[in-house]
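Reopening this one. Same input as before:
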Amino acid sequence: MPLSELVRVAGICWSVEECFQAAKSQVGLDHYQVRNWTSWHRHITLAMLALAFLTALAADTAPERPADAHHLARSRDPIALTVPEIRRLFGALLNPLAVSAARLLHWSTWRRRHQATARRSHYRRRTASEPAG
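Same output, byte for byte:
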């Protein structure tokens, strides 16, 4: 078996593990207490369907990536919607005690702008500490 093939397979395994970890933390893949296979299968199917929906929605709302590699360090725009952010927005909208939709969207934009500021600071610090050349 060539080394390149082993690296490719290891990379695939890592991405599958990342997907399961996201499903556990975002849609409760591991939050089941069932006694038979049919109930377990339904729970797993619905959890994976919810994750696929959230991921597709996040991918659909993501802006085009700029050709400039340093664009993220200079941009004042908020970060793109992420799966956890979309999940929070849906949860707040479905909660009858939640605040108005306008206030919820304002909060989301404020939060993503501050995350973008943190990202810019991180990238600036990294580029400043890298040796020139």
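So the earlier flakiness isn't reproducible anymore. For the record, DSSP finds five helices and no strands in the chain.
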